[in-house]
Design a protein that fits this description.
Elements lengths: L6 E6 L5 H10 L12 E3 L5 E6 L4 H6 L5 E5 H14 L6 E5 L5 E8 L14 E4 L2 H11 L4 E4 L15 E6 L3 H5 L2 E10 L1 E5 L6 H21 L1
Parallel strand pairs: 1-3, 1-4, 7-8, 7-9
Antiparallel strand pairs: 2-3, 4-11, 5-11, 6-9, 6-10
The structure holds 1-O-pyrophosphono-5-O-phosphono-alpha-D-ribofuranose (PRP), zinc ion and magnesium ion.
Enzyme class: transferase
Organism: Shewanella ulleungensis
Cofactor: Mg(2+)
Protein backbone atom coordinates (compact mmCIF):
# COMPACT_ATOMS: atom_id res chain seq x y z
CA UNK A 1 0.00 0.00 0.00
CA UNK A 2 2.86 2.39 0.81
CA UNK A 3 2.70 5.67 2.66
CA UNK A 4 0.19 8.15 1.37
CA UNK A 5 1.45 11.61 0.48
CA UNK A 6 -1.74 13.03 1.88
CA UNK A 7 -2.22 13.37 5.60
CA UNK A 8 -4.75 10.83 6.84
CA UNK A 9 -6.92 11.75 9.82
CA UNK A 10 -9.36 9.24 11.32
CA UNK A 11 -12.50 10.62 12.94
CA UNK A 12 -15.65 9.01 14.30
CA UNK A 13 -18.23 8.38 11.59
CA UNK A 14 -21.25 8.85 13.81
CA UNK A 15 -21.56 9.29 17.52
CA UNK A 16 -20.71 11.64 20.34
CA UNK A 17 -17.44 12.91 18.86
CA UNK A 18 -18.23 13.10 15.15
CA UNK A 19 -19.83 16.56 14.86
CA UNK A 20 -17.27 18.28 17.05
CA UNK A 21 -14.33 16.50 15.40
CA UNK A 22 -15.48 17.76 11.99
CA UNK A 23 -16.17 21.21 13.38
CA UNK A 24 -12.70 21.46 14.92
CA UNK A 25 -11.00 20.61 11.62
CA UNK A 26 -13.22 23.10 9.77
CA UNK A 27 -12.29 25.77 12.32
CA UNK A 28 -8.64 24.99 11.49
CA UNK A 29 -9.33 25.92 7.87
CA UNK A 30 -9.60 22.40 6.45
CA UNK A 31 -12.31 22.57 3.76
CA UNK A 32 -14.22 19.35 3.11
CA UNK A 33 -17.69 17.99 2.54
CA UNK A 34 -18.81 14.76 4.11
CA UNK A 35 -20.83 12.33 2.03
CA UNK A 36 -22.62 10.08 4.53
CA UNK A 37 -22.17 7.07 2.23
CA UNK A 38 -18.43 7.52 1.92
CA UNK A 39 -15.61 6.38 4.17
CA UNK A 40 -13.19 9.02 2.90
CA UNK A 41 -13.63 12.80 2.58
CA UNK A 42 -10.89 14.64 0.67
CA UNK A 43 -10.05 18.17 1.76
CA UNK A 44 -10.21 20.66 -1.15
CA UNK A 45 -7.56 23.07 0.03
CA UNK A 46 -4.95 20.90 1.78
CA UNK A 47 -3.45 17.43 1.16
CA UNK A 48 -5.64 15.87 3.84
CA UNK A 49 -7.97 12.86 3.74
CA UNK A 50 -10.49 12.25 6.49
CA UNK A 51 -11.33 8.64 7.25
CA UNK A 52 -14.74 8.26 8.85
CA UNK A 53 -14.74 5.05 10.89
CA UNK A 54 -16.09 3.50 14.12
CA UNK A 55 -14.51 5.16 17.15
CA UNK A 56 -13.24 1.83 18.48
CA UNK A 57 -11.19 1.33 15.29
CA UNK A 58 -9.35 4.65 15.52
CA UNK A 59 -6.58 3.84 18.07
CA UNK A 60 -5.58 0.66 16.20
CA UNK A 61 -5.45 2.46 12.85
CA UNK A 62 -3.08 5.04 14.37
CA UNK A 63 -0.95 2.51 16.27
CA UNK A 64 -0.53 0.43 13.11
CA UNK A 65 0.42 3.57 11.16
CA UNK A 66 -2.46 3.10 8.71
CA UNK A 67 -3.53 6.69 9.41
CA UNK A 68 -1.34 9.55 10.68
CA UNK A 69 -3.70 11.26 13.14
CA UNK A 70 -6.86 10.30 14.99
CA UNK A 71 -9.43 12.10 17.12
CA UNK A 72 -10.68 9.77 19.83
CA UNK A 73 -11.92 9.54 23.42
CA UNK A 74 -9.14 8.88 25.93
CA UNK A 75 -11.26 6.03 27.29
CA UNK A 76 -11.27 4.21 23.93
CA UNK A 77 -7.55 4.92 23.48
CA UNK A 78 -6.60 3.53 26.87
CA UNK A 79 -8.84 0.47 26.52
CA UNK A 80 -7.28 -0.38 23.14
CA UNK A 81 -3.77 0.22 24.47
CA UNK A 82 -4.23 -2.36 27.26
CA UNK A 83 -5.89 -4.79 24.84
CA UNK A 84 -3.01 -4.56 22.39
CA UNK A 85 -0.30 -4.80 25.05
CA UNK A 86 -1.89 -8.06 26.22
CA UNK A 87 -2.04 -9.34 22.63
CA UNK A 88 1.57 -8.32 21.90
CA UNK A 89 0.49 -5.93 19.14
CA UNK A 90 1.90 -2.42 18.52
CA UNK A 91 0.29 -0.25 21.21
CA UNK A 92 2.21 3.00 20.93
CA UNK A 93 1.13 6.40 19.64
CA UNK A 94 1.63 9.99 20.76
CA UNK A 95 -1.12 12.02 22.38
CA UNK A 96 -0.62 15.48 20.85
CA UNK A 97 -3.14 17.14 23.10
CA UNK A 98 -6.41 16.82 24.95
CA UNK A 99 -9.32 18.55 23.17
CA UNK A 100 -12.13 20.64 24.61
CA UNK A 101 -15.04 18.27 23.97
CA UNK A 102 -16.15 14.67 24.50
CA UNK A 103 -16.15 14.87 28.25
CA UNK A 104 -17.51 11.69 29.85
CA UNK A 105 -16.75 9.20 32.59
CA UNK A 106 -16.59 5.43 32.68
CA UNK A 107 -18.62 4.34 35.66
CA UNK A 108 -20.00 1.35 37.44
CA UNK A 109 -23.76 1.38 37.87
CA UNK A 110 -26.26 -0.97 39.49
CA UNK A 111 -30.08 -1.28 39.50
CA UNK A 112 -31.91 1.22 41.72
CA UNK A 113 -33.05 -1.55 44.10
CA UNK A 114 -29.46 -2.76 44.66
CA UNK A 115 -28.07 -1.81 48.08
CA UNK A 116 -24.60 -0.48 47.42
CA UNK A 117 -22.18 0.37 50.23
CA UNK A 118 -18.73 0.52 48.69
CA UNK A 119 -16.69 -1.19 45.98
CA UNK A 120 -16.79 -4.44 48.00
CA UNK A 121 -20.52 -4.62 47.24
CA UNK A 122 -19.42 -5.61 43.72
CA UNK A 123 -17.78 -8.83 44.92
CA UNK A 124 -18.93 -11.82 42.90
CA UNK A 125 -21.20 -9.82 40.59
CA UNK A 126 -21.45 -10.11 36.84
CA UNK A 127 -20.78 -6.77 35.13
CA UNK A 128 -21.70 -5.98 31.52
CA UNK A 129 -19.27 -3.69 29.69
CA UNK A 130 -17.63 -2.65 26.41
CA UNK A 131 -14.48 -1.76 28.40
CA UNK A 132 -13.30 -5.06 29.91
CA UNK A 133 -9.67 -3.93 30.29
CA UNK A 134 -10.37 -0.68 32.16
CA UNK A 135 -12.88 -2.57 34.33
CA UNK A 136 -10.34 -5.30 35.12
CA UNK A 137 -7.70 -2.74 36.05
CA UNK A 138 -10.07 -1.04 38.52
CA UNK A 139 -11.29 -4.31 40.04
CA UNK A 140 -7.74 -5.66 40.42
CA UNK A 141 -6.66 -2.49 42.21
CA UNK A 142 -9.58 -2.94 44.61
CA UNK A 143 -8.97 -6.70 44.92
CA UNK A 144 -12.51 -7.57 43.88
CA UNK A 145 -13.42 -10.76 42.02
CA UNK A 146 -16.22 -10.49 39.45
CA UNK A 147 -17.20 -11.89 36.10
CA UNK A 148 -17.82 -9.89 32.98
CA UNK A 149 -20.27 -9.94 30.15
CA UNK A 150 -18.84 -8.34 27.03
CA UNK A 151 -21.35 -6.23 25.08
CA UNK A 152 -20.42 -3.78 22.32
CA UNK A 153 -23.70 -1.94 22.65
CA UNK A 154 -26.94 -1.78 24.67
CA UNK A 155 -24.92 -2.32 27.84
CA UNK A 156 -27.52 -0.38 29.83
CA UNK A 157 -30.25 -2.96 29.24
CA UNK A 158 -28.16 -5.94 30.41
CA UNK A 159 -29.31 -6.00 34.07
CA UNK A 160 -33.00 -5.76 33.18
CA UNK A 161 -32.53 -8.46 30.54
CA UNK A 162 -31.03 -10.72 33.21
CA UNK A 163 -27.62 -10.77 31.54
CA UNK A 164 -25.72 -9.09 34.37
CA UNK A 165 -26.01 -7.65 37.89
CA UNK A 166 -24.50 -4.28 37.01
CA UNK A 167 -22.78 -2.39 34.23
CA UNK A 168 -19.60 -0.46 33.56
CA UNK A 169 -20.33 2.07 30.83
CA UNK A 170 -19.83 5.65 29.73
CA UNK A 171 -21.91 8.29 31.42
CA UNK A 172 -22.25 11.79 30.09
CA UNK A 173 -25.53 13.41 31.22
CA UNK A 174 -26.71 10.35 33.15
CA UNK A 175 -29.95 10.18 31.13
CA UNK A 176 -29.26 6.65 29.88
CA UNK A 177 -28.73 5.31 33.41
CA UNK A 178 -31.86 7.01 34.67
CA UNK A 179 -33.98 5.75 31.78
CA UNK A 180 -32.85 2.23 32.57
CA UNK A 181 -33.38 2.25 36.35
CA UNK A 182 -29.66 2.27 37.18
CA UNK A 183 -27.54 4.50 39.40
CA UNK A 184 -23.86 5.35 39.31
CA UNK A 185 -21.75 3.96 42.14
CA UNK A 186 -18.09 4.40 41.14
CA UNK A 187 -16.35 6.55 38.55
CA UNK A 188 -13.43 4.49 37.26
CA UNK A 189 -12.10 6.74 34.49
CA UNK A 190 -12.61 10.37 33.39
CA UNK A 191 -12.18 11.09 29.72
CA UNK A 192 -12.06 13.83 27.09
CA UNK A 193 -11.50 13.66 23.35
CA UNK A 194 -7.84 13.86 22.32
CA UNK A 195 -5.80 13.97 19.12
CA UNK A 196 -3.19 11.27 18.61
CA UNK A 197 -0.38 10.78 16.10
CA UNK A 198 1.20 7.57 14.87
CA UNK A 199 4.81 7.03 15.94
CA UNK A 200 5.98 6.40 12.37
CA UNK A 201 8.56 8.89 11.14
CA UNK A 202 6.83 11.30 8.78
CA UNK A 203 8.27 12.89 5.65
CA UNK A 204 9.22 16.51 6.34
CA UNK A 205 6.30 18.15 4.48
CA UNK A 206 3.76 15.88 6.14
CA UNK A 207 5.18 16.58 9.60
CA UNK A 208 5.08 20.30 8.80
CA UNK A 209 1.38 19.95 7.95
CA UNK A 210 0.76 18.09 11.21
CA UNK A 211 2.51 20.88 13.12
CA UNK A 212 0.42 23.48 11.30
CA UNK A 213 -2.85 21.69 12.10
CA UNK A 214 -1.81 21.29 15.73
CA UNK A 215 -0.90 24.93 16.13
CA UNK A 216 -4.25 25.92 14.62
CA UNK A 217 -6.04 23.54 17.00
CA UNK A 218 -4.22 25.25 19.87
CA UNK A 219 -5.42 28.62 18.56
CA UNK A 220 -9.03 27.49 18.07
CA UNK A 221 -9.22 25.99 21.56
CA UNK A 222 -7.59 29.03 23.17
CA UNK A 223 -10.14 31.28 21.43
CA UNK A 224 -13.02 29.13 22.72
CA UNK A 225 -11.85 29.11 26.35
C1 LIG B 1 -22.52 6.19 25.70
C2 LIG B 1 -23.02 5.14 26.65
C3 LIG B 1 -24.48 5.46 26.81
C4 LIG B 1 -24.51 6.95 26.62
C5 LIG B 1 -24.55 7.67 27.96
O1 LIG B 1 -22.66 5.76 24.40
O2 LIG B 1 -22.84 3.82 26.13
O3 LIG B 1 -25.24 4.83 25.81
O4 LIG B 1 -23.32 7.35 25.94
O5 LIG B 1 -24.76 9.06 27.79
P1 LIG B 1 -25.75 9.85 28.75
O6 LIG B 1 -25.23 9.68 30.16
O7 LIG B 1 -25.68 11.28 28.29
O8 LIG B 1 -27.11 9.28 28.60
P2 LIG B 1 -21.85 6.47 23.19
O9 LIG B 1 -22.55 7.69 22.77
O10 LIG B 1 -20.43 6.61 23.57
O11 LIG B 1 -22.00 5.48 21.99
P3 LIG B 1 -21.39 4.01 21.78
O12 LIG B 1 -21.62 3.31 23.09
O13 LIG B 1 -22.21 3.48 20.67
O14 LIG B 1 -19.94 4.18 21.40
ZN1 LIG C 1 -18.21 3.08 20.39
MG1 LIG D 1 -23.84 3.64 24.02
Amino acid sequence: MGQSKRLRIAIQKSGRLSKESQQLLKSCGVKFNVNEQRLIAHADNMPIDLLRVRDDDIPGLVMDGVVDLGIIGENVLEEEQIERQLAGKPAECTKLRELDFGSCRLSLAVPNEFKYKDANSLEGLRIATSYPNLLRRFMQEKGITYSDCMLKGSVEVAPRAGLSDGICDLVSTGATLEANGLYETEVIYRSMACIIQSNETQPTEKQALINKILSRINGVIRARE
